[in-house]
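Fold this complex.
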Amino acid sequence: MRKLMLVALLALGVSAIAAEPGKIIIWADDTRTPVFEEIGKAYSEATGIPVEVVEVGFNEIRGQFITAAPAGEGPDIIIGAHDWVGELVANGLLAEIALPDELKAKYDAVALEAFTHGALYGLPYAREGVALVYNKALLPEAPATFEELIDFARDFTDPTVPQYGFAVQNPDPYHEFPFLSAFGGYIFGYDEEGKLNPCDIGLDSEGAITGAEYLDALFEEGILAAGMGWDIWTGLFSEGRIAAVITGPWAIGIAKGAGIDVGVAPIPLMKGHIPKPFVGVQGVMVSAFSPNLPLVEDFLFNYFATVDTQLALYERDPRIPAFLPAYEAVADDPILRGFAESIANGVPMPNIPEMSAVWGTWSDAMAAIGNQEMEPADALKKAADAIREVLGCK
Amino acid sequence: MDGLGKTILKILFLSALGAFAIYWAALAALAGDWKVVPFVVLGAAGVSWLLLSERAYPLRYLAPGLLFMTVMVLVPVVYNIYISFTNYSTGHILRKDQAIQVLTSKEIPTSPPVRFRFTAYGTADYLRVIVISTPEGPLFVSPEGKVMDPGSFAAPDANGDGVPDSVDGYPPLGTREFLANHYPAVQRIRIPWEEGWLRLATLRDFGYFIPRYRYDPERDAIIDTRTGKVYYAGLDRFVAEDGEPLDPGWPRWVGLANYIRFIRDPRYHQAFGRVFLWNVVWAVLSVAFSFVLGLALAILLNDRNLRLRKLYRSLLIVPYAIPAFISILIWRGFFNTHVGLFNEVLKSWLGPRAGVPWLDDPFWARFSLIFTNVWLTYPYMMLVSLGALQAIPGELYEAAAIDGAGPWKRFTTITFPLLMVSVAPLLIGSFSFNFNNFTIIWLMTQGGPVVEIGSQAGATDILLSYAYKLAFYGARGNEYSMAAVFGVIIFVIVAVISGISFTRTRALEEVSRGL
Amino acid sequence: MASRRVRPGRIARRGLRHLLAWIAVAFALFPALFVLGTSFNPMNNIATTRIVPRNPTLANYLAVFEKGLGVWLLNTVKVAGIAASVSVAFCALGAYAFSRFRFRGRRAGLLALMLVQTFPQTLALVAIFLILHHIGFYAPWIGLNTHWGLIIVYLGGSIGFNTWLMKGFFDSIPRSLEESALVDGATPFQAFRWVVLPLARPILAVIFVIQFITLYSEYLIANVILKGKEMYTLSVGLYNLIAEHYSDRWGEFAAGAVIGAAMILILFYALQSQIISGLIRGAVKE
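Structure:
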């Protein structure tokens, strides 16, 4: 009776869009929303379960989910990146996903690993990472070694035009990491159990410093321009003023939209070493406060983890599918293959929450290197020490 | 309106208020939220007192604004102060009961999965029973999750497959019908089974799951069902005897610990003085320059003999009409050292080597920020000055003209002092707004350029952006409680500065009362 | 007050004034013209921004309307319009009390009004979210993801400074008129409603415009409270349109901003005569 009256009283108002049993709510960003709306509709038609897709900006999802989920205002499913998993799990906000074996076999193992934090907390859909993206009109063939690329850039670069033979987004540790990793640099080492060890920080390891010096020389010579932000270089690239750049699949649409004929290749060898870009994985995660786990799993396993859905997502946003049958269907695309080959050399971006203490300080160090304010060894040593202190590793 | 009409209106209003108060109190009571009831009652009583007591007369004018301010401004401040005394941060954001719920609902999936088909019997409005087909025969389960005696049901099974054709005359429900009407109740069911439980696993099956953790209320501990390891409830999470903690935890009261950390840990206070100094300079110069410009333009445009002044006024508020975040991005593009418009112009005038590191050098980054902010803010100052200029009685000017005062004299003796009466508080307000103007700093420079690696504070960081960096790029993701500490410190600083300025405006008020 | 004689310096001075006005207008408009140019630019990229684009196109306008700009505008006008109007009414009431009545706690109240407002709102977002979550349980129509919920948040946040501003203005209005109304037997409220408010029209209009514009471009709070495209206000819609798409949607974003800014300019142009009414001078001279 009490419950009934409560319902009656509440019925005077409108229903809020928060997780409730018998209805699936998805937070997706605007690129992914149409695909989820489509499969949501199909799911509703088949089962009668309403599926509501709410558009939330990609960068907003994590923060708003942390606020909303414990209050019971959160969704059942969110779209997100694998490096959110550590923090969200520590907060107790994610439900484990029991992926059936036959589906597990269809997924890229590294992508599943990226969403694993003690248990599987997300269903990946795309892998991504940076590669060498070049304008075929200016640079017909991707060079085999970075030294060849530098030689080319020496002739081509002229900041007064402006035109650049080669660019990398900076200060931006994510895009500059391949330089450090090529020579053996890393962020977090692994402990004996194979888990990331937040106190083994490799930012000032010998390899990282060698790599940073290699990069530093390019700034010093004027081949690379410091302060080359995303909006700046994409503009220049679109106008055919940059021949090659280290970037990811997210830039392809812009380049194509501007009519640039782009090629994609693994980042060339640096003094014979293979640059290892960060691999990022995007996927869906399920709220620990969802009363709809059976429905959500049914929806994800039968409507989301399908070749059609994954290809539809690929159409809207060409990232490398983590779902292998979908990847095979599109693998003959040279751009996709270029990225896939590049990240085949890559390392997963750490998904532990401690990573949040790394980005800002590391970025400052890369800015100091780019602006020629500090020697790479000093800058990285200082950054690594500061991070150790924040993480209490001293 | 006459007295009688007013009285009737008051009675009607108070009756409506009473009805609402009863509705809300009932709702709160029914939801078990007893804490809310006294607030509703007190609120209603307060409003009645307001309308009936003569002594509360001035308060009648203030009440509507105060109500919203209390709820939407004061409560968040109090909440923030409260958070600053807790350890609310990554790993400590749930309530304890939520943490227990999250932990105890973790399951170990059996491999291969064990699944049993189920059939629901009833109608759209009524669920009679759920029959789960287990290897040990059908399991009759009530909608509340109780296992029932099969003998108490009339359950004919013509083909003998273990799935009754009907139960007590109720037919089996289709999946759609079941989901649409009974899913909310059935998803809650946990039937004890072997070492774990059966629960709804797919749309057609119940599945067998073993819980990973068990909660023992006696010992207030979480027990790992596989290893038997016991995690005792600590102050803010469950910890095993060997010290291994279990995520998630919950926040706890830490008293002044965060404030002590702020004072003791050089990471927090080292750059504080430098950031604070720039923060004050930034807010003062932003307000001063934009006010001077805005006031000058207001005076210019206030002259009715100036033709086109309506057009000028409209065009001059354009910077205000464009959402700030878009114009900030445009300005940032202009200031870019390599391809920005300003340096391109400089290069075309002075040769290819010319150029200013607008956003890459501490001095120029500060300059660029203030310049942009003046552009963003002067229309506001102009608008307010325009409004305030209208309030100055013309007779004062006439008197002054008779006394033979020139324009400058009139400005300094009449316009400016009178203007300051209404505008001074606004300047204080603008100061405190700009003191915490996170958006422009974040979008233009993110606090950069770097001053020192390892110190989060860049050359243009204000306290709020510095706090944001410390709080959100902390050791394990978010440290909301440290952000709250900074919030309180900033609040105190701004409040003190504003408060001192406020007492200065008192003098101005006295002047105006003399009129 | 101004003499009608034509002096030689007068024309030069008038010319100087126009020159100054035009310099100011150029300063105000020059970045805005880039926004305008970008909105017609098919390249859709901030670095290719120029005042006169090559191959101008209306495609950005069509695209942004397709993405929901019309609904966002309506929502914004509703939210900002209601919140600004009610806020002006509340502030006028409060400011009148602070300006004219002498009651215990007046100074302290004024001070509190100002100080509470100085708390950085960026840090209050979580609390505001939780408050609306609780309110929404009892009164869902003013809970999360409702325009009314957003309106009450805006009302709370805007009262302080505006009351202050208006109080200062009321202080500078001579009391002689009200006093004569009171002598004629009017209640204080009647004196306020029929004498003070008409005199205060310019500042009411100014505060309305300021409040409207502030709410018009507010996105921090709205972004946390409103979910889903149909609920967005203009700035939340534009913000989410451009976030993560700084390169490929710059033109659409600019088109949205141009339309948004045009609305503000129209509103301002329409209210100008209210702001610059000269009513006070006329009234006092009587």
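Chain A touches chain B through 68 residues (CB under 8 Å).
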